[in-house]
Amino acid sequence: MATLIHTLADHSDDVNCCAFSSSCLATCSLDKTVRVYSLNGFSELPYSPLKGHTYAVHCCCFSPSGHALASCSTDGTTVVWDTRDGQVLAVLEQPGSSPVRVCRFSPESTYLVSGAADGSVALWNVQSLKLCRSGNVKDGSLVACAFSPNGNFFVTGSSCGDLTIWDDKMRCLYNEKAHDLGVTCCDISSEPISGGEHGFRHFQMASCGQDNQIKLWLIFSADSLGVELKYQCTLNGHSAPVLSCAFSWDGQMLVSGSVDKCVIIYKPSTGSTLHTLSQHTRYVTTCVFAPCSPLLATGSMDKTVNIWQIDLMQPCAGNTLEKESEVAVEDWSEDDVSAWLCAQDLEDFVGLFKRNNIDGKELLNLTRESLTNELKIESLGLRRKVLQKIEDLRMKTLSVAVPVPDEFLCPITRELMKDPVIAADGYSYEREAMENWLSNKRRSSPMTNLPLPSPLLTPNRTLKMAISRWLETQQEQS
Predict the structure, then answer these.
(1) Among 88, 211, 297, 384, which is most buried by a count of CB atoms within 10 Å?
(2) Cα 379 from chain centroid?
(3) pLDDT, tens digit (0-9, with 9 covering 90-100), for 333-342
(4) Which residues pair with 19 in a beta bridge?
(5) Residue 320 near residue 337 (C-beta atoms within 8 A)
(6) pLDDT of the residue at 58
(7) How far apart, in Å, are the Cα atoms of 185 and each of 57, 105, 157, 374, 431?
(8) Which residues contact 140 (CB under 8 A, 6 or more apart)?
(9) No. of helices (H) and no. of strands (E), the chain
């Protein structure tokens, strides 16, 4: 289960990127700042916010030790900060002074890569903070970058849709057209796949793009044979361009954020959906797991960063129940149906349903005849079991078919309010959610981000009565 444990709302514009170290979380924004928080209570560090950039900050990343933080901006620079006191260690000017879209440290802290809108790739020596080498992608802007776990090579993604693999001498080892409408992000699992023939090392990589897709790849690396990229599969859980993707520290989960405002957590070994999170009210621009910790951060154009705690032991059934509650069954993807089958102890049918492209709408329309004649399920007992599970799902769908009016949902939790109160900004919130908001020493409105003139909360009895009447109506209709 994924539980929202904290929301950061300090940025005054879109959040573009989040990054974890072992003890801190960094966020950056269109508001030109980088903010740094302690993972102990998520309090902002005394030297935060960092204000070295003159234009929007697009990306930030910690060095493996956590002692340095890099951030890059439209101003054409990558700034390296000392995380102990927030002092500037270096301002690295991109060759050509083009807006810098992405920056990444190598795993052993030897190099820092920065990629820019003009397609330039700069490789900086971290110790000297001087430019080592530079290169250019064939076409488009460079918008994504990821290092292999051993640091022997890195991958870049461009707005024209190419994935390019480079070595530390800036030699192009491999190039692949991956996403027709442009790559937006890529990440390589930090856990290499052991084994392999002839000295190969296997790495799993994910890429996402403007085509609404996440693609999984295998990178085969051998000292004598170079590097090869092989396509594995496509994950189609999102209904709009996917802006960010990242593996968990152990490679067991993959998270993505999209223009559809949703965050999806997948199990990359099977491609099944584990969680769908829909707390953000605008595009989800960034998502990242903490190292060696069950924490996930997601950032959005709604100016907030949500911190989630992931229950790593939660079984598939619990994850699917969460999915059911957030997305109408008729809108389920084929992967959602697969996850539901697993939760119902029907995992033997996953391959059959995938081959027949059974999504949520098709699932609800299945009959005894279609199970027999089209899906060729010969066992009467199995047909009855599948039909009973589908009938239970239909009944549940009917009971939640009427969407909750938006004005009945708390703007903070996006859940039906039980005890609505009016805050000084004129908006109504669930009392407990707003009290928690204020207890964290926030004095700004969750809706407008403007200062609250007063912490006073007034019961909204009219809204509470309207919610009660609506609930009674739904009970009568069901």
Answers:
(1) 297
(2) 41
(3) 887 888 888 7
(4) 26
(5) no
(6) 97
(7) 16, 16, 7, 39, 38
(8) 119, 158, 159, 160, 161, 162, 182
(9) 8, 30
